[in-house]
Design brief:
586 residues, alpha+beta, five-stranded antiparallel β-sheet, 17 strands, flat, disordered N terminus, disordered C terminus
């Protein structure tokens, strides 16, 4: 019934004019799409006002209409309003002449408060639109998909990092129009309150308030990129709700662990994504531009690989060879290629070719045996990028690329973060929750590090280091300290310990007693990516262990050097009381 009423009068004939009425936003959007296609004109949203005001309580009859009408005021203007000829494909005599097209359409809530009425309809344009531009720019359902954010704001936002004060404005605009976007902006608001140095981009489709991608890097992630820029790894890490995909950028820290330095949540099919992610990372941490030596990407990021060198001029860009071979093998199985095993072996030899000549020989062998469809796929997709994955061009001889291991460990971390809720806002919240000390400490290989200390240190010192490494797993929270270093929360209420800027000293009594590395030092070093095994952390042999506190060793514990003066054998219970009294922990 509403649909029939909405299309009475001139609208039923597809004409747009004053007094035209629409009972739903959906019907106006569909009508307007048809009208624009017929007349080959492009309009953008200049202003939208929600049906329900944020500053006044809604009238009792409005909430039921909020989901159908959505807005009480809408103004659409020509795409070329206020632009210069050189910015678009329109035909004018002078390239410097400003277009200022006067065409506009305004809809307001009608007197009955149950429909939108066309109150302005200036339909004459002062320019001719290029058919090529219309076919390139026009997309149906853009109005219906709009989040209600002003187009000029979303176009501007897409070109730079989001300012914290702008988040509140966008959140205010979207609160009554799109709850999903409002929740997403709420997460950004929470992030900026806790971390003003975070870098965020929201990229919308041009001239349409439809979110395409989110770039995100916290202050801690940026510091990791700053500290370890040499090797970077980028790949699609997960599929997200709403046709979005998660791309992650990792670095490798001093402990050989993959660490997250940036996230990008992008709508499937977003163009130029690889360059956008890398450029956004460099913009957020400009110091790394000339310091990145190698960027390894997954096969899902192949598009645009040839243009990355413009962003990272000193880096070689390579594609994960194992993924390339896996993708080619999968393609061979899909096409039911005869002699699949022989072809897979040829591809393996080709990928590991030691010289261009050897590559050409294996390529010739492949051309002799591979079916035409598979060969066409290889020549069109992988052969042009051979410089990024074939051994003689892409990888240094004998190089062991940790790409697969780092991404696998990263995806395991994501399982708990992305499985609780289906919304985009919840995905962002889950990713931010991963940026915590307890999560990082779950990957602490304490026993492996302790074994290295045992190989170089005295028995007593190595035993204490091993114990502190094990206790480091119980770290709770960490914050940057003024002047460098970190403040770590203790287990007791209000307890806090400061690790120095060198990450080799701590204010806790365990460190002060013998100047040996404590659990807080190890937790801080793991968080910052600094090496956990560092012999300089151990006190010098025969050094001063403190004026009053003896070296404490468990009763029955063997010493490589036997009992020495000043060494006291104590039971486990006595040792616990002594240590906890020094540290102030229970």
């Amino acid at each position: 019934m509403l649909e029939q009423e909405a299309l009475k009068g001139p609208a039923a004939m597809g004409e747009l004019g004053l007094g035209l009425e629409f009972h739903t936003w959906h019907h106006f959007s569909s009508f307007f799409d048809d009208w624009c296609e017929r007349h080959k004109v492009l309009f953008i949203i200049a202003s939208l006002k929600p049906l329900i005001s944020l500053r006044q309580p809604p009238l009792p009859y409005l909430p039921s209409l909020a989901s159908t009408l959505r807005f009480r005021f809408v103004r659409l203007i020509c795409k070329h309003s206020g632009t210069y000829v050189g910015q678009s494909v329109v035909q004018r005599d002078q390239q410097s002449q400003k277009i200022d097209c006067p065409a506009l359409i305004t809809l307001r809530l009608g007197p009955k408060k149950d429909r939108l009425v066309v109150t302005e309809a200036k339909l004459q344009h002062n320019h001719q639109l290029s058919p090529r531009e219309f076919s390139r720019c026009f997309k149906r359902s853009q109005l219906e998909a709009s989040l209600g954010l002003p187009i000029r704001i979303t176009n501007s936002v897409s070109k730079r990092f989001l300012a914290p004060d702008l988040v509140w404005n966008l959140e205010d605009y979207s609160r009554a129009k799109d709850k999903g976007m409002c929740k997403l902006l709420g997460e950004m608001h929470t992030l900026f309150r806790a971390d003003p140095g975070a870098k965020v981009k929201l990229v919308f489709q041009e001239d349409v308030a439809i979110l395409n991608s989110i770039f995100l890097a916290t202050s801690h992630m940026r510091q990791l990129a700053r500290s370890f820029p040499r090797l970077l790894f980028l790949d699609q890490a997960a599929s997200l709700p709403g046709d979005f995909e998660l791309y992650s950028v990792l670095c490798q820290d001093a402990n050989g662990r993959g660490r997250e330095v940036a996230y990008c949540l992008a709508r499937r099919g977003t163009p130029d994504l690889l360059v956008f992610i890398v450029a956004s990372l460099v913009q957020s941490v400009p110091e790394i531009k000339a310091l990145v030596e190698c960027l390894t990407i997954g096969v899902s990021c192949l598009a645009g690989v040839d243009t990355v060198e413009e962003v990272l001029p000193c880096a070689r860009v390579q594609v994960c060879r194992a993924q390339v071979l896996e993708a080619l093998g999968r393609r061979a199985r899909e096409l039911a290629v005869p002699g699949e095993r022989h072809i897979v072996n040829l591809l393996h030899n080709l990928a590991h070719a030691a010289s261009p000549k050897v590559y050409s020989q294996y390529l010739s062998d492949l051309e002799d045996v591979a079916p035409l469809e598979f060969l066409r796929h290889f020549l069109e997709t992988w052969h042009p990028h051979k410089g990024t994955w074939v051994a003689c061009w892409a990888y240094h001889r004998g190089e062991n690329c940790p790409f697969v291991d780092h991404l696998e460990a990263h995806r395991q971390k994501l399982l708990s973060a992305l499985g609780r809720d289906s919304s985009l806002a919840a995905s962002v919240r889950g990713l931010l929750d991963l940026e915590s000390l307890p999560v990082e400490l779950q990957g602490l290989q304490a026993e492996e590090v302790a074994e290295r200390y045992r190989a170089v240190g005295p028995g007593e010192a190595a035993a204490l280091v091993a114990e502190e490494l094990a206790l480091a797993r119980h770290g709770v929270g960490i914050q940057p300290a003024e002047g460098g270093g970190f403040v770590l929360e203790g287990a007791g209420r209000g307890a806090a310990f400061t690790v120095g800027a060198d990450l080799a000293s701590c204010s806790c009594s365990i460190f002060m007693a013998g100047h040996r590395p404590c659990r807080h030092i190890f937790a801080a070093r793991l968080w910052a990516g600094k090496a956990l095994f560092d012999v300089s952390l151990l006190p010098p042999a025969g050094g001063d262990d403190g004026p009053d506190l003896p070296v404490i060793r468990r009763a029955g514990e063997d010493s490589r050097h036997g009992s020495t003066p000043g060494t006291v054998l104590v039971s486990e219970a006595t040792r616990y009381r002594q240590v906890t009294s020094y540290v102030g922990l229970k």
